[in-house]
Amino acid sequence: MGVHKVLISDSLHPDAIAWLKSQPGVEVNVAPKISREELLEIIGGFDALIVRGRTQVGAEEIQRGQRLRVIGRAGTGLDNINVKAAQEENVLVLNAPGANANAVAELTIGLMLSLARHLPEAFASREKLQGYGWELEGKRLGIVGLGRIGSRVAHLASAFGMQLIAHEPDPNAGPTDLLIQRVDLMALLRESEVITLHVPLIDQTRHLLGVNALHQVHKGVMIVNTARAEIVDEASLLAALDEENVSGYAADVVKDERLTRHSRVVLTPHIGAQTEEAQRRAGLEIVQRVAAALRAMPG
């Protein structure tokens, strides 16, 4: 059996790199700051490519990978990988679903609390804030998507005493040990006092919360988005904030710069998965999956 050459083109947890280097028949090249031009130049010499979110793996990168058989993403989303192009070239695409679920779910709850108690203003002020915040207990939380992250949010929110409703097309998805009312999306928008988004970015979910959806929401709803920015039509969201149909928005990433200056928007700089534990889990899971896939391939 020959040596499998693996390129790691983004930062990866040291324990994951050490594990992969310890495997027989595997040669590892770590280049976490490699440019696209450099990647295109050398990708043809590797059997596997492991990325996080920085490296964009498009059709050209895949086609240049004459030996490329596996692409691994140390995380959940695959929107930085052209999966269709990979399939056309018979390149296996793997990810680490669930590795960051708890980290993202905890941030989601933190953002809810930030909106509810006006924490950014409180941190910046030496004076008592005018007006009141509100408590999570008893509020109706609408969860859009009951995958690993949405399910973990449900458990955490339940501990705060929130009433749970959810929109999830898969009847088998989601926790079975919690009381969650399943509703369609329009009902969730009308009934929820807080909405949290946990769906992947695909054609069907792009601008899922668009102008029509945002006109259906419960007046004064607060929305938390720790998924992808494009799931929300940000121009329509700005209008809904100005009209006070939406009283607050918290997100881990945005595209429209106007949101960064809005007084009722709380933002974090894409830190959902940025915990020591999540990065270690994601790193170890993906290197183990990539190594197993390479070993299983003929030749």
Automatic annotation (TrEMBL):
A GO MF term: oxidoreductase activity, acting on the CH-OH group of donors, NAD or NADP as acceptor
Pfam families attached to this UniProt entry: 2-Hacid_dh (PF00389), 2-Hacid_dh_C (PF02826)
InterPro entries from the UniProt entry: D-isomer_2_OHA_DH_cat_dom (IPR006139), D-isomer_DH_NAD-bd (IPR006140), NAD(P)-bd_dom_sf (IPR036291)
Sequence ranges assigned to domain D-isomer specific 2-hydroxyacid dehydrogenase catalytic in this UniProt record: 6-295
Keywords noted in UniProt: Oxidoreductase
PANTHER family per record: FORMATE DEHYDROGENASE 1
Record's protein name: Phosphoglycerate dehydrogenase
Organism encoding this protein: Fraserbacteria sp. (strain RBG_16_55_9)
